[in-house]
Amino acid sequence: MVQYKQKNRSGGIILANKLVLIDGNSIAYRAFFALPLLNNDKGVYTNAVYGFTTMLLRILEDEKPSHVLVAFDAGKTTFRHKTFEEYKGGRQKTPSELSEQFPLIRQLLDGFGIKRYELESYEADDIIGTLSKQAAEGDWVVNVYTGDKDLLQLVTENVKVTLTRKGISEVEAYDLKQVEERYGLTPHQIIDMKGLMGDPSDNIPGVPGVGEKTAIKLIKQFGSLEQTLDSIDQVSGAKLKEKLSENKEQALMSKELATITHEAPIEVSLEDSVYKGYEPEQLLPLFKDLGFNSLLERIGGDTGQEMVSEEEKETIEFEEAKALNDKILSSPAALIVETTPETYHRAPVNGLAIVNENGKFYIPGDLALSSPEFKKWAEDESKEKYVFDAKRAYVALDWNDISLQGVKFDLMIASYLLNPSDSGDDVAVIAKRYGIHDTDGEEAVYGKGAKRKVPEISVLSEHMVRKANSIYVLQEKLTNELKKNEQYELFADLELPLSLVLGEMETTGVKVDVGRLQAMGRELTEQLNALEAEIHELAGVAFNINSPKQLGEILFEKLNLPPIKKTKTGYSTSVDVLEKLEGKHEIIRKILVYRQLGKLSSTYIEGLLKVVDQQTDKIHTRFNQALTQTGRLSSTEPNLQNIPIRLEAGRKIRQAFVPSTPGWKILSADYSQIELRVLAHISQDDNLMEAFKKEMDVHTKTAMDVFHVEMEDVTSQMRRHAKAVNFGIVYGISDYGLSQSLNITRKEAGEFIEQYLKTFPGVKEYMESIVRQAKQDGYVSTLMNRRRYLPEITSRNFNLRSFAERTAMNTPIQGTAADIIKKAMVEMERVLKEEKLEALMLLQVHDELIFEVPEHEIEKLSQLVPQVMESALGLDVPLKVDLNHGDTWYDAK
DNA sequence: GTGACCACGC
DNA sequence: GACGTACGTGGTCACA
């Protein structure tokens, strides 16, 4: 364990005491403005605390001080206000986001065992001035850390001042020599300089018209402010002479204000600031609470995927169930169905855990899965269960012929809805965010990569009981937070039911025509071999076409083609680069085809064949319900949301996706322009709403309005551009992004966007108001109150801020579309059951639902599906669904 | 194992 | 004027 301890004095020689004085307010300010507005899981801002902490850790490591003291300003008025009432007047009020962090900084310093001090009527500077003088007189070595150049006046033989530069990441130490180099003045003359030039940030007037250059020149010439004022007649320049004599008094007062006192009536002694090193145990809970996970390691804490050490864990008492009775199978109960992390399809159940008001129980897998009592309890809707990742539990049990019902709380989903940015699939990680630290992460228990294995049962049983206990303990807290955010309906009526729907879709799986896939694979391999030979022939040498590095060398060095774009590591060989080279060499076309076919072969043929269930020829994807920042689902192992469609060669892959029962059909229903319809609704833009109400082609309509032409005069080029702009609006891309996708200049792209917003003033108004709202609230919401926090929207970093602004505009659109289709899915599943239909919902691809349907239900479904989807959520514009069916997914177009 | 690069979908 | 620009998943290569 790394622990900071005062180092032994070398060779027994006692060196001078070393005192570090920190200007607390100044460093906190710097940190606050340098870092984006981070917050922890409780919504408390922590950026200043974080910056302060990293700085402090570095100071302690670099300086290894024997004494440390952090000085703070106290109150608003100081003795300087008696001299000059407007001292520090006109200063912007400290933002509340910062002031609320000061108590945390104080707590943190206490945790470090570092003395802090503030004194009524005095500023931090004065405390530092007084202590540094005392220390220097005692022959101590002093280093002052601040962001304020004024403190340079304190530099002496023994006292250094270290200034923060550029944010907080860089610092610069000033001793006598460096002050001289920088200003050509002694530290004491800094005050004279200030008297002349003033300081706008403190509202110190100085002499108007005199800036740093003139001030330094005068002080160099005459030695001090007083001597300058005594010798005004020797000053060169009539204007300057006049200014100086007019503002004598003001200059003297300014000097007084800028002078840091060495005589503050402080009640601390140097010895009070003794620093003995910190105890990691004191800091761990603070850091965890603040969410400083990256700093835990630096102070010798755990990173989350190491076992929580035994001392930190309270022992947990639990019972191993020998038989299942009402005491164990009561309600409500937290339930863990333990499966080895990763895929849960056909996964063995490693055991179960239940925590309820009667106690904590570990239940061996065999016992539960073979127990009729357990099945009855699990399937009983009225027995309330609290879980983590309901779908995992649901599917794992479903493979064992148990249909889990009555899930009333899912910790994973709840945490995701409260804040999608710190979601996760690990109980421990989420529990920690909410203050529970005794649960190990999955990786710590199971190991990772090659080392993954199911641990011995004593470890595993305790692990699952701890997880169940975390859920049990956190249920109320998160439920309350959801209610407070008005997200409980989203949670209970949408996402929870959806997880069961998704679970059913996943277990149902999609049938694949393996023979067909293999045949396509063979054909592709032949084509690839032929192409490879031709490419090598044209290049004059055999090389790996899949290696961007080798390909780049061949194209741009051997064949001397012009390198259009570079990447960090070499030449770019991406599609848009190759397309620009297409006319220049016949090898290019072949490489493009090789790339396209190679992708199909490796990702889609081989990739899919790898995950086909050998017994049933079905593919069971997993939908991740708690991952994307917008509320969309994602799909893994395999990803069935990116099966090719645009290019015919790729689209053919879809021919391998077939119904699981002979004679059935694949039916696909996709929302037409759902995001733009949502945008029309949210923005209430008349023009856009009209397009949908009149059922116009929205891209054509956009082209007509943006280019001011009649419908029949819209060229395909215009429509393509309009479509790209609409696309950009929906996905929140920038002018740069648009310029890339249309291969036009950024300026032109910017003009397009501007023209678009002129045409749709309601949209413009929406874009502006949503950004304002995001700045005010810190988050944006969808129609169903899904949230996304955007702390960076107040960042002073242009990039971070712009990105957050585009996100603010885009997330309510994309997220509401996600809400709508999710709602339709829940409703659809209900209707299928209610109508006793055999048809099965198989997949969701963001704006599209895929079903397999018996022939005789096609007609019924063709009516029901659009009806359900179009009425999922009432908008002020109609929703429209396009429907297709066929023998394979390919044919459902 | 990890990061860079590339490519597929919405 | 620079900054480095939708969100995902997954394959391959090349490095350690």
UniProtKB/TrEMBL annotation:
Domain 3'-5' exonuclease: 305-483
Residue ranges annotated for the DNA-directed DNA polymerase family A palm domain, each copy included: 650-857
Annotated catalysed reactions: DNA(n) + a 2'-deoxyribonucleoside 5'-triphosphate = DNA(n+1) + diphosphate
Pfam family name, one: 5_3_exonuc_N
GO molecular function: DNA-directed DNA polymerase activity
E.C. designation(s): 2.7.7.7
PROSITE patterns: DNA_POLYMERASE_A (PS00447)
Chain coiled-coil ranges: 514-541
Keyword annotations from UniProtKB, A to Z: Coiled coil, DNA damage, DNA repair, DNA replication, DNA-binding, DNA-directed DNA polymerase, Exonuclease, Hydrolase, Nuclease, Nucleotidyltransferase, Transferase
InterPro entries, sorted: 3'-5'_exonuclease_dom, 5-3_exonucl_a-hlix_arch_N, 5-3_exonuclease, 5-3_exonuclease_C_sf, DNA-dir_DNA_pol_A_CS, DNA-dir_DNA_pol_A_palm_dom, DNA/RNA_pol_sf, DNA_polI_exonuclease
Assembly, per entry: Single-chain monomer with multiple functions.
Family: Belongs to the DNA polymerase type-A family.
Name recorded for this polypeptide: DNA polymerase I
Gene: polA
